[in-house]
Amino acid sequence: MGSLPTDVQSDAVPPDLAPVKVALLGQRMWTLHLARLMQRHASELVEPWAATERQAAGILARPRARKPSILLRVGYRPGAPTVRGRTFDALWRLLRASAGDALPIHYWIGSDVLNTLRDASLGHLTRAFDAARRETHFAGAPWLAEELATVGIDAEFVIFPGEMPTSAPPPLPDQFTVLSYVPDARFAFFGGDEILAAAGAMPEVQFLIMGGHGPASGAPPNVAFLGWRQDTADLYARSSVVLRLVPHDNIGLTAREGLAYGRHVVYTQPLPNTIRIRTGSSADLIAVLRELYGRHVDGRLELNDVGLTYVRREFDERATTRHLAERLVAAVSSSDRLA
């Protein structure tokens, strides 16, 4: 297991260079997320463009269009045997041919690694995966880089940046409340069954679930499914504890945000200053929540100041975004030197 860096500083980039044009393609939500952060914090280093597949194919095919220096593929894994995967790989080949000398970079962010490991074990990866091995790869967590190494991909660990609150955290609420993110399409993957079991065992505790509307079979009355929420600051303010219960992950943004709000975070992955439990264990979850609830009742549950200090140091929004931008610029410079 790799360790997190003590800082996210990288090689200095000469200030007189023009920004490197980066075309981001892949999972739309995450390409827009990265483009927004790079525009906000690193516009003198990179010029990001989060393109839809149709936009990219159309513009790159124009002879006079300004070509990007980097094609950054986010979350859409190479070699997927699905119709969608094969179609995107075909588009990727077209884009590479149309973009001239643009450097292709794959940014692995979580489930793309998990699905690749599964398909590799079954022998289902297509030839596009073998071609991608020779390209440049970033991984958003150290354990993702280690997993990719087992299938022949040498990936550099580059923290996936996230938006982080910087104001003083609100006090813990008077009512002990648990917050989690559980989308309907991946209810079991995000620990939905364990959360419902905990809610049933602790009717005195309020559970807030963002991202979905819950199972058709219903849920205990102390569980509120809130659907998709663009602004979640008020939900973190209403929570005492944040859950992220997944069997595989990047360095989860929900967990980071929970720490950034000074909340107590229960997580199934190895992140410092969180409470780690086993994946799929309702008993572990209930035991931890009961211990935290007991501290709340006794007046001993305070803000997670240690976690707050840690996450603001290690996952500062501006620093991690600039680190990504600097690694992109450095990758282009290295490619130019090798050409």
Question: What attributes does this structure have?
Answer:
339 residues; six-stranded parallel sheet; alpha/beta; single chain; disordered N terminus; Rossmann fold
Based on Cα principal axes, name the global outline. Answer: globular
- Percent of residues in helices comes to 40-55%
Mean pLDDT: 90
Major sheet strand order:
2-1-3-4-5-6
Give me the secondary-structure category.
alpha/beta
How many angstroms does the end-to-end distance come to?
34 Å
Most strands sheet: 6 strands, parallel
Q: How would you describe this protein?
A:
With 339 residues, the protein is of the alpha/beta class. The protein folds into two domains: 20-161 and 316-334, Response regulator (Rossmann fold); 177-314, Glycogen Phosphorylase B (Rossmann fold, 3-Layer(aba) Sandwich), CATH 3.40.50.2000. The protein contains twelve helices and twelve strands. Helix 1 (28-41) links the parallel strand 1 and strand 2 (46-50). Helix 1 (28-41) packs across helix 12, helix 7 (192-201) packs across helix 10 (282-297) and helix 9 packs across helix 11 (305-314).
How do the strands and helices of this protein lay out in sequence?
Blueprint: E1 20-26, H1 28-41, E2 46-50, H2 53-60, E3 70-74, H3 83-98, E4 103-108, H4 111-122, H5 127-132, E5 136-139, H6 142-149, E6 156-157, E7 177-181, H7 192-201, E8 206-210, E9 223-227, H8 233-238, E10 241-244, H9 253-260, E11 264-267, E12 275-276, H10 282-297, H11 305-314, H12 317-338
Parallel strand pairs: 1-2, 1-3, 3-4, 4-5, 5-6, 7-8, 7-10, 8-9, 10-11, 11-12
Helix pairs in contact: 1-12, 2-3, 7-10, 9-11
